Amino acid sequence: MVDVLVIGGGNAALCAALVAREAGASVLVLEAAPREWRGGNSAHTRNLRCMHDAPQDVLTDAYPEEEFWEDLLKVTGGITDEKLARLAIRESSRCRDWMRRHGVNFQPSLSGTLHLSRTNAFFMGGGKALMNAYYRSAEALGVRIRYNAPVERLELENGEFRAAWVGKERFAARACVMAAGGFESNREWLREAWGQNADGEWPADNFAIRGTRFNRGVLLKFMIDAGADSIGDPSQSHCVAVDARAPQYDGGICTRIDCVSLGIVVNRNAERFYDEGEDFWPKRYAIWGRLVAQQPGQIGFSVIDAKANGRFMPPVFPGETASTLEELARKLGIDEATFVRTVRAYNAACRIGTFDHTVLDDCHTEGVVPAKTHWALPIDKPPFRGYALRPGITFTYLGLKVNEASAVHFSGVPSTNLFVAGEMMAGNVLGKGYTAGVGMTIGTAFGRIAGAHAAAAAQKQGVEHAAA
User: Do the bridges between strand 153-157 and strand 160-166 make them parallel or antiparallel, or are there none, so unpaired?
Assistant: First the structure.
């Protein structure tokens, strides 16, 4: 029997394992994926949103707690637990030195990365390097790791953890941290969550899964069925607009289309359907997957002209290019006349002030619906470019309800030795919406919290057994 069992192999899981081991606990990690695919969705990440009151190495200016909180409040529409959200925010200000001790290096934000030099610390080498550093540190500290070990069920007794099962193999522990991800790779569950639309389509069938194929929500479903308190809407998720040619799994960041705020987006009927300049892209990029999912055929088209060149991070696939709007419409497979009419109406509505993509500028539209609130420039300088879009799910928000110790609850009563971190509880903070890097903030904060409390619970249980 080990002291702490950690189920999962991404950022939250490894943070929990490292903290528990530092506290003196023996730790075993069960990772569903094979070694070459370890790390879950964290391997696809790039940065961590961090509170800081003054410039810090790779972070510029200041990003105080209240501003972080207001940013989160705005994107979630108030669907967040303020106490838990502020706990994650405060933890983000004191985790980076700990991360460095475990081999994580940081770098300044790259040009075109969503204006994040002030708010987000970027990992040197990205999420893959981050996870490799954590695994190296865990192994050096004596954390045992089992790959190809998907947990199907737990043994529970009155809300207390006893053991986990992988096939016919039983793993007992004094305490457990679950960090096994959401259900985004479970197409049947996505279908159930999203249902059918009026045209009889199943929108979820057209979703790309940006991350790991191993997050099928098996443990999450088991826990909900076992009576654990849940939180969140199963249809809400971190859902961005990705290139329609993206692979079904593991497309990651390089398939995301980041030029939306620099042009217009139309559906397959060649009509605009939302304000492309509503707010800064880091605060709005994660609403566009859901917006596209609500369009006919779950398809959209991001259209820009030559003025946008160099102002966004280009995706891995080149877009369709054309010297005329009519040619671009043909290449995108949408109606030429309607598309040209849509673009011309938008162009005529543009009220050009001083364009500045780094601020909420005064370039806007008048007399067209939907309006474009900022960065509205006519699409009139060839070559024109278009990217076909479809929804890309990063992670789902349905999860398990927790307290400040990240303990799982059963009928409102927190377990004394079962904890949860990462995507499996992110819905406590993210009821809807997203802002760049906050998923890693939640995973890092509650992974460390869960690991510390699991180690303490294991120690307490060990003392009690010894006394008995």
Answer: antiparallel
Please list the residues that pair with 393 across neighbouring strands: 209, 239
pLDDT tens digits, one per residue of 292-343 = 999 999 999 999 999 999 999 888 889 999 999 999 999 999 999 999 999 9
Q: Which residues pair with 256 in a beta bridge?
A: 242
CATH number for the domain including 450?
A: 3.50.50.60
**DSSP secondary structure string, 174-238?**
EEEEE----STT-HHHHHHHH---TTS--GGGG-EE-S-TT---HHHHHHHHTTB-EES-TT-EE
Q: Which two tokens stand for residue 186?
A: 């479970």
The amino acid present at 388, given as its one-letter code, is A
Does residue 224 belong to any structural domain of this protein?
yes
Amino acid sitting at position 121: A
Q: What does the alpha-carbon distance between residue 421 and residue 406 come to, in Å, rounded to a whole number?
A: 7
Q: What is the pTM (predicted TM-score) of this model?
A: 0.92
Contact call for residues 446 and 402 (beta carbons, < 8 A)? yes
335: which 2 tokens? 């109606």
Residue at which a domain ends, from 392, 411, 435: 392
